Amino acid sequence: MYNSYKFFIITKEEYMDLDKFKYIVCIAEEKSFTKAAQKLYISQPALSQYVATIEDQFKTKFFDRSCNPLKLTPAGEIFIKKALEIINLKKELWRDLEDSSNNKIVTFSIGISPNRSPYILPLFIP
Predict the structure, then answer these.
(1) Alpha-carbon distance 72 to 28, whole Å?
(2) Distances (CA, A) of 95 to 25, 47, 90, 108
(3) Domains observed in the chain
(4) pTM score
């Protein structure tokens, strides 16, 4: 039996390059556009332009630029939290796919009566 998947169309406004989430995370970690650009090996104007595009897309600011060092706005804190979750999910997805392609994942079935399972299964499954 196959699972059915629903595909949907992503509009230009909804599209975000997930790899670039790390740009905003890096700025938050470094508390500086310049330091983050150096760490990411991209120009500072390109990084600023990317952040401005994302901020325009969400119609909010992620960084309080009046502070030195930079501070996250409440919206920025939410974005960073969710971006880190997405980045970690992406890493987990790649790891799981790699494990499955390397035959590291094994599926097996156990048949046991319901009356005996509470006594026998704990011996095998922690």
Answers:
(1) 7
(2) 21, 29, 9, 21
(3) 18-110 (1.10.10.10)
(4) 0.66
